[in-house]
Amino acid sequence: xxxxxxxxxxxxxxxxxxxxxxxxxxxxxxxxxxxxxxxxxxxxxxxxxxxxxxxxxxxxxxxxxxxxxxxxxxxxxxxxxxxxxxxxxxxxxxxxxxxxxxxxxxxxxxxxxxxxxxxxxxxxxxxxxxxxxxxxxxxxxxxxxxxxxxxxxxxxxxxxxxxxxxxxxxxxxxxxxxxxxxxxxxxxxxxxxxxxxxxxxxxxxxxxxxxxxxxxxxxxxxxxxxxxxxxxxxxxxxxxxxxxxxxxxxxxxxxxxxxxxxxxxxxxxxxxxxxxxxxxxxxxxxxxxxxxxxxxxxxxxxxxxxxxxxxxxxxxxxxxxxxxxxxxxxxxxxxxxxxxxxxxxxxxxxxxxxxxxxxxxxxxxxxxxxxxxxxxxxxxxxxxxxxxxxxxxxxxxxxxxxxxxxxxxxxxxxxxxxxxxxxxxxxxxx
Amino acid sequence: xxxxxxxxxxxxxxxxxxxxxxxxxxxxxxxxxxxxxxxxxxxxxxxxxxxxxxxxxxxxxxxxxxxxxxxxxxxxxxxxxxxxxxxxxxxxxxxxxxxxxxxxxxxxxxxxxxxxxxxxxxxxxxxxxxxxxxxxxxxxxxxxxxxxxxxxxxxxxxxxxxxxxxxxxxxxxxxxxxxxxxxxx
Lengths: 430, 185
Description:
The complex is a heterodimer of chains A (430) and B (185).
Chain A: E1 9-14, E2 20-25, E3 29-35, E4 49-56, E5 61-63, E6 68-70, E7 76-79, E8 87-92, E9 97-110, E10 134-150, E11 160-163, E12 169-173, E13 177-182, E14 185-194, E15 207-212, E16 219-224, E17 229-233, E18 245-247, H1 260-264, E19 268-271, E20 277-281, E21 285-290, E22 299-302, H2 311-316, E23 326-328, E24 334-338, E25 343-348, E26 354-358, E27 375-376, E28 387-388, E29 400-403, E30 409-414, E31 417-422
Parallel strand pairs in A: 27-28
Antiparallel strand pairs in A: 1-2, 2-3, 3-4, 5-6, 7-8, 8-9, 9-10, 11-12, 12-13, 13-14, 15-16, 16-17, 17-18, 19-20, 20-21, 21-22, 23-24, 24-25, 25-26, 29-30, 30-31
Chain B: H1 2-21, H2 30-57, H3 59-63, H4 76-87, H5 94-98, H6 103-116, H7 144-149, H8 163-166
């Protein structure tokens, strides 16, 4: 049963250098992969990612006051920029955010005066001279410890966390509120956005994602279930309910259907690395917005428009509620997002070319080149290897993808499997 | 007619999903519940719009419906739903057939409808199609009367729907208490 598996990956995130890759799963576990340094014997073969550390980040909890179980599923992981030898990351479930310290230990002191190798107290009569303990190399040990727990600040389910460029604060967003935290202070947070109506019957939209601007520590964006984006400036007011900019594309009345509201809900929003653009994902499209143009997106990419006529069945089998994430490449020239049947799509903004690729064991032997896939309409003209819309497996969905910050390496989460693809020919980004 | 049938199906599915989401691990998902409510509202609006179109087209057919009702006057939405049920040419859902209920349920429903009705509603519909109670799809919410009373016509008002209106007698009683989770002490 798909819903019972604890090892379904629920979030994927590279750190700022791309050396580390973290995944979170439905069972509350975090697995960190580390890229092996380039091998000297094969100068052109880039390092591969191996497991570096695994730890249990969140456990299931029970809210006795509301008689609700709190899922341990990791919704998001965000790395802090590295400031010393240790790595820090934030992980969150529906209610609680935790700051984890990941550090290495590859030396240990040996030669204590009072204790022996196993730690037992020595017999004093055997000690005849003093020695200075010496640090000796040992097998590498990765230690993970929780440094902060930010709890009890969210009534609704946390969907996003985002570290500020000031490296001191971060925000957490739930369906109706966004809170600003200081990384060192756990007993209070500032509420910066609150869209809860006085009367819940008046509720018309919820917050679906939020992110800080990569360079301007006063700016952040949040997306809504109505398909709008709001850019807010924390210098303007303490409570940023009033947006600085509102990005909204007018609805096409001819495309109206029963499901228009569902498919226009934005499931993910990401600033470009430059900070100039925004990338959003709704059910059928991915859109690039220019921060200077609020009236409509700069570019719209059809991810799987062949599903437009299938919305009713996708509504019945719940797939229409799937929340796909999206990602930029390091140079902001290519965007990527997932789809069904373990397909994921990449769109080159400059050449306007797009490709559909599949993450599956069969097509992913090591060193194999991924073959582009094509989805054709049912009954349409089929080429060999094409797949018909009706044959798509909707239980195989790629919701979470990540792109290395500087190189052409991508991480694709396909249910409980993680695929890492590297572009060996074009490791430099264009 | 296609639109009516589709709208009805969508509403039924939305209700089923809202109902089952209450037992989901992690508590009720606000975003999902909101989208489902919007879909239901959208389907309901399109349903009414489709009915308004078909009424003008098939006016003569409706006059033949028996004017039974007696004690209570159905709300606007219910009259239109009755009309749809009687006019529908598509195969009715299994659900609808199962709801063909005996008199005890029918009486209870009428009594409950009395409470929910707007007695002096400004828009009393003159098209009083008294379809047979057996064909009344009582699983669908009668929102119209409530909307007329409401100050803001755009309210979602999931919690304005009384369970008695649309749950068949053998389904467990569901009380939709809306989204106000903070007040749940």
